[in-house]
Amino acid sequence: MGGDFAPQVTVEGAHAALAHLSPGTTLVLFGDRSALAAADRWGVLDDPRVETVHTAEVIAMGDHPVKAFAQKSDSSIVVGFRHLCSGDIAGFASAGSTGAMMVGCMQAVGQIEGVIRPAIATALRTVRGSDVLLLDVGLNADCKPEVLAQYGTIGSIYARTTLGIERPRVALLNIGEEPEKGNLLTKATFPLMEQCGAAGAYDFVGNIEGKHLLSGEVADVVVCDGFSGNTLLKTIEGFHRILQLQGVEGTFMEGLNYERVGGTPVLGINSTVIIGHGCSSVLAVTNMIRLTERAARTDMVSQFKQAFNH
Amino acid sequence: MGGDFAPQVTVEGAHAALAHLSPGTTLVLFGDRSALAAADRWGVLDDPRVETVHTAEVIAMGDHPVKAFAQKSDSSIVVGFRHLCSGDIAGFASAGSTGAMMVGCMQAVGQIEGVIRPAIATALRTVRGSDVLLLDVGLNADCKPEVLAQYGTIGSIYARTTLGIERPRVALLNIGEEPEKGNLLTKATFPLMEQCGAAGAYDFVGNIEGKHLLSGEVADVVVCDGFSGNTLLKTIEGFHRILQLQGVEGTFMEGLNYERVGGTPVLGINSTVIIGHGCSSVLAVTNMIRLTERAARTDMVSQFKQAFNH
């Protein structure tokens, strides 16, 4: 029950998500039970598909993530990860402290053997209405070529299992389309991704420039270092925000609303974890829950293991 | 007289630019004189403010820039640079081969002593109607911290002299606002830029995230490596193009039209050089000429020399 506007927004988001859950899915809410009850104007807690786990502590935004994760053992994030690791829940999401969520991913869940660096990914809606997955968007500001080449596999598996893209086209974000273009990193990455493509790890389609990202014509998965990905994402967000304030509307604009996606998956770890924006709205929380269910119902994690444990 | 649509578009652009030139400015056109005459439906060549210099060769887009610059000594680009270096003209612009233009900048004009790496810059129009200068946007895909710190000085001088911003606020493009955020490059650059700020080289305001770039609220000059800058620029172009195709209009959208700026200055070299888009339209050529005049009439180059020759 994290996030700047918890528990009100979170409970309302849970209420809205219930309408979309698949049969057999149970929604487990972690948080202060009396606060949850006080915020529950929809009877969410009485729904037979909902379980609550009482937690008494709160990891605040100012807390040091590693320390807080170690010390606040009765916070919703720590208890949630405990349930995730014991298999009581199949996926875990929170709009609480991003830092603590990452500590949970790395310390409690752990990265998949063979994965050099996990990534966080964002799916953007293209003008064609398809999704394009961008990774990494900020977990690894400095990447080695081998890490980017692996992101092709990681992104491809997520796109296939969770986004439903049958044969994702994987491209390398670059400043030119020709193989020899780029900075030292992308120049060294290109041949590695070409090898991955030749070996059948994924469908490598070459370089993509930022101008083609949202066209949907070139790639479904775009691989980049976390600095570039984060910059690109935030630039699009800023541009989108300005246009929104100016009253520009339409399907394309709507598709770029972050609330539509609801959260950022952490990929390359041993379970399904989605991190929501701290300032998540009801719609964002709803979609965060729906995304977590969708991802947890796939065999994404076992596909990661199969791809890297050889 | 370079560019994909030369000489027609170029002559028409020259015609339109003449209406805006300051008294005392002469516009010198380099190109095949009979082709220019054939394209001249406006009497541009008869204007007393226009001179033509006949050139017989053409550097084609497929030509190797270094070889072409060495061998095609009677092309408009090579002859133009000769006139620039001899002081016959005060500024030079072309929408022809970008590669050959860069060879001219580095070999014929040369970089200013003390400048580690020249940069290319793009001014974007913010939502407030002000300009924000982004550099580097593609000349140096891999930058050292010292290079980025210098870009603060270079960008600041250009913003002051040519964009008319009295006291430009200089920021470092980063993935967080706090000084300790970033990748290895930006983390190492921050303290150097802080020192430059303390020494009065420019007004360093700290980190800026992509989402604040076009707000105009944080910075007038944004410094980044050429990979990030080029990616960011092309992403904005792509986003802008999609919205344009969807019929989105307004001042903000118009301001982001590249034709409004007309060309990219090469900064940190011993003269004024503007490189236009290959696919420049009449409006883009017009503005390329106007920008060249504006920059050439300032003391930008001597300010660069003063800043770095100590």
Number of helices of chain A: 12
Largest sheet of chain A, order of strands side by side?
3-10-9-4-5-8-6-7
Name the pair of protein chains with the most residues at their interface, and give those residue counts. A-B, 38 and 38 residues
- Quaternary arrangement of the chains shown? homodimer
Order of helices and strands of chain A: HEHEHHEHEEHEHEEHHHEEHH
Q: Which residues of chain A sit in consecutive blocks of at least 5 with pLDDT less than 50? A: none
Number of strands of chain A: 10
What is the molecular shape of chain A?
A: globular
Report the average pLDDT across residues of chain A.
94
Secondary-structure-based class of chain A equals alpha/beta
Q: What's the main sheet of chain A like?
A: 8 strands, mixed
Strand content of chain A: 15-25%
Radius of gyration of chain A: 19 Å
Helical percentage of chain A: 40-55%
Itemize the secondary structure elements and their pairings.
Two copies of one chain form a homodimer.
Chain A: H1 8-18, E1 27-31, H2 33-39, E2 50-54, H3 65-71, H4 76-85, E3 91-94, H5 98-109, E4 119-125, E5 131-135, H6 145-161, E6 169-173, H7 184-198, E7 203-208, E8 221-223, H8 226-245, H9 251-255, H10 258-261, E9 264-267, E10 272-275, H11 282-296, H12 300-308
Parallel strand pairs in A: 1-2, 3-10, 5-8, 6-7, 6-8
Antiparallel strand pairs in A: 4-5, 4-9, 9-10
Helix pairs in contact in A: 1-11, 3-5, 4-5, 6-7, 6-12
